[in-house]
Structures are given as structure tokens and as C-alpha cells.
TrEMBL record:
It comes from the Bacteria. Its main location: cytoplasm. Coiled coil: none annotated. It comes from Sulfurovum riftiae. This is Acetate kinase. The keyword Membrane does not apply. Keywords: ATP-binding, Cytoplasm, Kinase, Magnesium, Metal-binding, Nucleotide-binding, Transferase. GO terms for biological process: acetate metabolic process; acetyl-CoA biosynthetic process. NCBIfam families: ackA (TIGR00016). The gene is ackA.
Length: 396
């Protein structure tokens, strides 16, 4: 099948085109609405970059389709079997990929208060294609859907029950597409059915989350109602005492919006050592910078706490999976996370295997380890393509 995966951001548009789950082209358009927009095209035959003016998302989508046709990747847009859209927040409504209809669009729009920065842009991409290519089948794939299998004891906050009923206050989780993909790949690597495995998946990038997966189903995840909860991240604080928020407002005489910016954009690694670039932090820490050392140790400490908590929740763990830019490439982080976990959890890293710079799926545990340690590059676009293909077939 020919599936186009589309990720529409507030000022960007990214896509990959898949033929039978093989990526044949990708297009990225950035700085939409600015005088100088930046565009890249990659196909099996060419790689081009150019700076032009893309005035809005309508213009961006027309340009995207023109690029795919002019590069002879496809001859006509109508030959696509489906378009899969990444939609960040599906609330409690959406537990699987869903065919786009006017009613589905209304429901996604109703969830904008839960993802005000992301869902409007995701919707814009859906609506533009519906307007210009109404016969194309469109599928929404939700970041939150994978985590809707969490039991209520994990999904609910200990707040007045009416807040769930009146304002949908609960834990939703994010990075679901990535966690779902690497869980399936882990099962293949271990040569066992996914339904027989207990996994802890660690998506470690600028945003970071951990998920406890029991027999293929997410039963807990570190991000909550928003992506702010959980692990320490590049610029997000992760878990903090909630009373810090009113304390800062009253003590520093700052607004709630300023606190929101501080927690989401000025905290995490950046808040401790001034940068959220992990390579820079590791280099500085190795050169003796104390703030960088502290940032690294705090980052790893939070991950280790979640491994301990999810080990208790799962009862037994077959594998821990590292993915995301940091999880896949920062060998020091993997080593620090696993250090000293032999006696408690039977986790033993093979340091020589861990030093490999191969960019493929691989095991990095020692023969003595009771828990497999896997490095699996995530591929959210491929997972969206797969889910879209399944939904398209089901819609016929």
C-alpha cells in the first residue's frame, strides 16, 4: 500500500511516503509563514534543499504534493491508499487509529484545551487535505492511544473526582507511538510473542518518558495529563512538588504563564547546567564542570527511580528498551542507568557491547543478566504508516 505519514506542526510540516512499509521519500518544510521557509526533499534518487517563501499550511501542503510529483515519486496524489496523521492528544475518546470523518474532526477539536499547542496544527493538516482531496482516506493516529489501556488506579490523580468528570483531569501519557513500535521490535529481537513479555521502555530524547508494558499493553507511563510530568527532560522539569507553583507565584510575584514557561522551557537539564544538548553536557561533565555533572546524575537518578517503580508494578521484567536520540546514542547514560542494579534487579550491562556505535537494533546486556537490555532506534513514522494501513484495510 502507498501511505503518506503527515505531521503538521504550528510552523512546520513533515512527511514520509511509504510503499509497503518501505520509506521512499520524505519532505520537511520549516518556518512556515516566514519570509524564508526552509524545505528539504529526500528520495531514493535525490536530496535537495531550498529556501523559499511558504505563506501558510495550505501553501505548504500544495508544495509538498508538487515535490512528490515532480520528483516522480508518485504520479498522482489520488494513487495514495491513505494519509496517516500524527495527532498528539486523543483524550479518553481514542484508543486506536481512527478514520477521519466530520464527527471525528469535531471530537479532536474538543480536545484542543488538553493540547493547545499541538492539536490545532494537527487538525489544520487534516482539514486542508479534506478540502482539496476529499476522496482520500485519512487516518488519525494518536500519541495518547497506546496508553489508554492503563488501569484506573494508574490513570487517575488523587484529586476530587468531579475534576475528572468536569474537566477531564487524568493521566493520558505521550510518546505512545514510539513505545508501541519499540515494544513490537523488542519482541522480534527476543524471538518471543509480545503478549508474553513484560517490558520497560525508555524514550529518552529532549522529551523523555518511561512506560511499563505488560503483555503488550501499557499499564503505566511517566508522562501524565501533559508531557510535563515524569522524567527530567531537556527543558521540562518532570515530577516536582506541586506546591512549588503557588509558592513561586506568591514569592517572586510572577504570573501563572511565567511559571508554565519556566517549567516547560527553562527547567530540566537546561535549568541545571544551561543547556539541553546531551553531548555538550557529557563533554562538560567530563571536563570537570560541576553543574553538568549534577545535571547528568539527576537525569539518570530519575530514570533509575522509574525502573524500580515499574519493576514493582510489573512483578517481573523481561527487557528494558532504550530508544530516542539519547537512549540510542548516549552510551554513558545507558551505563550510568544500569550501574549497580545487578544485585537488586539482576540487570547486568555488557560494557563492550554498550560501546558499539552501530545504529541498529541490538542487545547490550551480559550473559549473566536476568533482564535483557536492548537498544532499538525508534521509528514513529513507520509505526504510524503500519497503523494507518491497518485502519485503511478495516475501513473498506
Amino acid at each position: 500500500m502507498k501511505i503518506l505519514v503527515l505531521n503538521a506542526g504550528s510552523s512546520s510540516l513533515k512527511c514520509q511516503l511509504f510503499f509497503d512499509e518501505t520509506s521512499v521519500a520524505s519532505v520537511t518544510i520549516e518556518r512556515i509563514g516566514e519570509a524564508e521557509s526552509y524545505m528539504t526533499l529526500k528520495t531514493v534518487r535525490e536530496h535537495s534543499e531550498q529556501t523559499i517563501t511558504i505563506k501558510d499550511h495550505h501553501h505548504a501542503i500544495r508544495t509538498l504534493f508538487d515535490l512528490l510529483q515532480n520528483s516522480r515519486t508518485i504520479s498522482d496524489i489520488e494513487e495514495l491508499d491513505g494519509i496517516g496523521h500524527r495527532v498528539v492528544h486523543g483524550g479518553a475518546y481514542f484508543t486506536r487509529p481512527t478514520k477521519i470523518t466530520p464527527e471525528i474532526i469535531r471530537r479532536i477539536r474538543s480536545l484542543i484545551p488538553l493540547a493547545p499547542l499541538h492539536n490545532p496544527a494537527n487538525l489544520e493538516g487534516i482539514e486542508i487535505i479534506a478540502e482539496h482531496y476529499p476522496t482520500l482516506t485519512q487516518i488519525a493516529v494518536f500519541d495518547t492511544a497506546f496508553h489508554q489501556t492503563m488501569p484506573e488506579i494508574a490513570a487517575r490523580y488523587p484529586l476530587p473526582y468531579r475534576l475528572y468528570e468536569e474537566a477531564s483531569v487524568r493521566r493520558y501519557g505521550f510518546h505512545g507511538t514510539s513505545h508501541a513500535y519499540v515494544a513490537k521490535e523488542a519482541a522480534k529481537l527476543l524471538k518471543k510473542p509480545l503478549g508474553s513479555l513484560n517490558l520497560i521502555t525508555l524514550h529518552l530524547g529532549n522529551g523523555a518518558s518511561a512506560t511499563a508494558i505488560s503483555k503488550g499493553r501499557s499499564i503505566d507511563t511517566s508522562m501524565g495529563m501533559t508531557p510535563l510530568e515524569g522524567l527530567m527532560m531537556g527543558t521540562r522539569s518532570g515530577d516536582i512538588d506541586p506546591a512549588i507553583i503557588p509558592y513561586l507565584i506568591h514569592t517572586l510575584d510572577i504570573s501563572i504563564d511565567e511559571v508554565d514557561t519556566l517549567l516547560n522551557k527553562e527547567s530540566g537539564l537546561k535549568g541545571i547546567c544551561g543547556t539541553n544538548e546531551m553531548r555538550e553536557i557529557i563533554t562538560s561533565a567530563e571536563s570537570g564542570d560541576e553543574k553538568s555533572r549534577l545535571a547528568l546524575e539527576m537525569y539518570v537518578y530519575r530514570i533509575r527511580k522509574y525502573i524500580g517503580a515499574y519493576s514493582a508494578v510489573l512483578g517481573s521484567v523481561d527487557a528494558i528498551v532504550f530508544t530516542g536520540g539519547i537512549g540510542e546514542h548516549a552510551m554513558l547514560i545507558r551505563e550510568m542507568v544500569c550501574e549497580g542494579l545487578e544485585n537488586t534487579f539482576g540487570i547486568c550491562l555488557d560494557k563492550e557491547k554498550n560501546l558499539s556505535v552501530e545504529n541498529n537494533e541490538r542487545a547490550v546486556h551480559s550473559t549473566e543478566s536476568k533482564v535483557a537490555l536492548l537498544v532499538i532506534p525508534t521509528n514513529e513514522e513507520l509505526e504510524i504508516a503500519r497503523q494507518t494501513e491497518t485502519a485503511v484495510k478495516a475501513s473498506f
